[in-house]
Write a structure and sequence with these properties.
single chain; 703 residues; mainly beta; 2 helices
Length: 703
């Protein structure tokens, strides 16, 4: 963002300039124009801001507005107009009567530009190998066939809307948004190379390939609202449609060139929702608010054929498309009671109901275009979710406050089958509290905590999953949270703060999968703000994410081998300091923002049978960022700005480093064995970079 390029303090500088103009009541209109330059190509640095390529770019920002004595107004706001992360909004109307807006928002996503692939046609729906291609075996080197491959997407959002205020406290507003998204991303593919095996575990050849992105999303919103002293309510409609120009992706197997594979891409779908929300103030003591919505979601894109030679044409698909339909209803109700100035009680209730009306059929299962495995039924998920929360807020003294509450959560899930349905439910009880006090004018203290317990009833794993595996989001869980906050402000100029928090999730009944997760963290910060011209800060944060997982390996889907346990420990340290000094020397403003982030990820794998531990190499990242800026005020209307941004990013990732496109291709191929795989990668590099950005611009301010 342009504002980020120069400093976080530029907005404050603009406000200060407005204060200096006599009688100024509205922000000063301003236009900024200049030129910047990026030192090197760095896709990670410019992933979302558009500063990914070496060379100059245009600095262009605008903010202007006008309002007359009749309340007629307009304003224009544009940021990053010279970059691919540009934003523009035009708004016009009459205060209290009409409001119209038009906006455009563009967002790039530069993922990686160091990939390689032998496939021709990347970005399209057919990926074929080049003429003369000789696969392994007998070829032991396919590097000559590799060509550059880039992964990037871009979305552009165009929106417009109109709000009309009618008489008698009524208003109507409508809005529309159109969003195309285009580019290329990465996906995985696999084709069975040996048909002698049965079950899920097969000998396959796999490849990372380019997936085309050619989406269009349209959204429509309309609302009819009423607002008066004691009552407010609204009737609303929201509609969304998604279209994918590409239905499927087809590729040639790099290992057995006579074989081909295909996969379906995200299907077209749509959703329509009607809702009502409102509130009523019965008296100063009683207040009621609520919301109700119903929606219908459908997806009816044609299925691909089996396209597997081993499945006879006499076994057609059960139906031509999913013909999927989901009806959803949501209701929320909040009642607030305030019997005195010291005590307030709130009751919240939420109800969600998902009715998945998609038909159930029996399908022939295949693995990667190989032999049929077994017949299986699709099992549409429906659920009913009830949540009740009671919250009390009690002023225990003139300088202390206690917030406490209880929450009950019941989730009932139902999977439809050909013979009936399979049900399970989660029940969770939670208690929470937060106590705040101000022992002195300079101190603010707070402690808070939460405990919850979730149970699971009647869970039956799907037939193709390990019977001991329970997904973490439904597994029985005990959760604890404890935190504290201290703030100290010895004077108007100085402030200090410290925060610590500890979270623990314990899945003590889990035999496989996630069994424990904890996330301790703490932050220290200080600010110095002696007057309106000086504002400085410094902070340090440490966060940890620790977890344990249990698992077991299988061969041919039947034999369980030694169990294992994975211990994961991620640590992140962040340090920052900076400030803004207005009129530091004459008419000069100066600013500094410095950030340093360092992270380390450790993974240890314990073989339970042999009690031996093997460790993966540590995952490491370091990021140092420095932003310096200065601006000179020439009178009230003209400001000259200069900025410098330095950023250095370094990463060590064993899953990427030194892995070329052909690193996982076996030469020569081994004898067929369960799970044997030859995999063609895209060979991306870790996106380390050092970037320097310089910018010079002129800002003109006017009334």
């Amino acid at each position: 963002l342009i504002a980020t390029l120069f400093s976080t303090g530029l907005a404050a500088a603009g406000v200060k300039a407005a204060d200096e103009v006599e009688g100024a009541e509205m922000p000063i209109n301003q236009v900024e124009l200049g030129i910047g330059s990026v030192s090197d190509d760095a896709w990670t640095f410019g992933r979302y801001n558009g500063l990914n390529t070496q060379g100059p770019y245009l600095i262009g920002d605008i903010y202007t507005q006008d309002i007359n004595e009749d309340g007629e107004y307009w304003n224009v706001r544009g940021t990053n107009l010279g970059l691919e992360s540009r934003y523009f909004r035009l708004e016009s109307g009459t205060q209290g009567k009409t409001d119209f807006f038009f906006e455009f928002d563009q967002q790039p996503n530069y993922i990686n530009n160091t990939g390689q692939t032998p496939y021709q046609g990347s970005g399209g729906t057919q990926l074929l190998l080049p003429p003369g291609y000789i696969p392994p075996p007998p070829n032991t080197n396919i590097n000559p066939y590799l060509q550059p491959l880039e992964f990037q997407t871009e979305r552009q959002r165009v929106g417009a809307g109109l709000d009309i205020t009618l008489k008698n406290s009524w208003s109507v507003d409508v809005g529309f948004r159109h969003e195309p998204k285009n580019g290329t991303n990465q996906t995985g593919s696999a084709i069975v190379t040996d048909s002698a095996l049965t079950g899920i575990i097969r000998t396959v050849s796999g490849a990372l390939i380019a997936e085309p992105i050619d989406y269009e999303t349209d959204q429509v919103n309309a609302a009819f609202r009423y607002a008066k002293d004691k009552a407010q309510f609204a009737f609303e409609y929201h509609g969304s449609t998604f279209k994918n120009a590409d239905e499927s992706l087809f590729w040639q197997d790099y290992y057995r060139t006579t074989q081909f594979g295909s996969m379906a891409l995200p299907p077209d779908n749509q959703m329509h929702q009607l809702s009502f929300n409102g509130g009523y103030q019965f008296s100063p003591k009683y207040h009621l608010t609520g919301a109700l919505s119903i929606s219908n979601s459908t997806q009816n894109q044609d299925f691909q054929p089996y396209n597997v030679p081993t499945i006879p044409t006499s076994n057609p698909l059960p139906r031509d498309s999913l013909d999927g339909e989901v009806l959803q209803a949501n209701a929320q109700l909040r009642f607030t009671y305030r019997p005195s100035s010291k005590f307030r009680l709130a009751a919240n209730y939420r109800y969600d109901n998902r009715d998945n009306q998609t038909d159930v059929d029996s399908w022939i299962g295949t693995v990667a275009d190989g032999l049929p495995t077994y017949n299986y039924d699709n099992s549409p998920l429906s659920y009913e979710h009830n949540q009740l929360e009671l919250i009390g807020n009690w002023r225990t003294g003139s300088k202390s406050n206690l917030r406490f509450g209880y929450e009950y959560d019941l989730m009932y899930r139902e999977y439809a089958t050909l013979t009936g349905s399979e049900n399970s439910d989660n029940e969770e009880n939670k208690l929470f509290a937060k106590f705040k006090m101000q022992p002195g004018m300079a101190w603010n203290l707070a402690v808070y905590g939460e405990v919850s317990d979730r149970s699971l009833n009647n869970y039956d794993p799907p037939p193709d999953e390990n019977s001991l595996m329970v997904p973490f989001y439904v597994a029985e869980r005990q959760r604890e949270q404890l935190g504290a906050l201290v703030e100290y402000m010895p004077s108007q100029a100085w402030s200090f703060g410290a925060r610590a928090e500890y979270n623990m999730d314990d899945y003590d009944e889990a035999l496989l999968g996630l069994v424990e997760a904890e996330t301790p963290s703490f932050t220290l910060d200080a600010t110095y703000h002696p007057n309106k011209d000086v504002n400085t800060y410094v902070y340090y944060t440490r966060e940890q994410a620790k977890s344990k997982q249990k698992g077991s390996a299988t061969t041919a889907g039947t034999v369980t081998t030694n169990a294992w346990q994975g211990d994961f420990d991620d640590t992140m340290d962040t340090f920052g300091l900076g400030g803004k000094w207005a009129r530091l020397v004459g008419n000069w403003d100066l600013g500094l923002d410095f950030t340093f982030n360092k992270s380390k990820g450790k993974i240890d794998i314990l073989d339970v049978g042999t009690s031996t531990t093997n460790s993966y190499p540590d995952l490491k990242t370091e990021l140092a960022s420095v932003k310096l800026w200065a601006q000179y005020h020439q009178g009230k209307n003209l400001v000259y700005r200069i900025s410098y941004w330095y950023e250095d990013y370094d990463a060590d990732n064993w899953a990427v480093d030194e892995l070329g496109a052909t690193s996982l291709i076996n030469q020569p191929p081994p004898a067929p064995a369960p799970g044997t795989t030859n995999y063609l990668l895209t060979g991306e590099d870790t996106m380390d970079y050092v970037a320097h950005v310089i910018g010079i611009s002129v800002v003109y301010k006017f009334q």
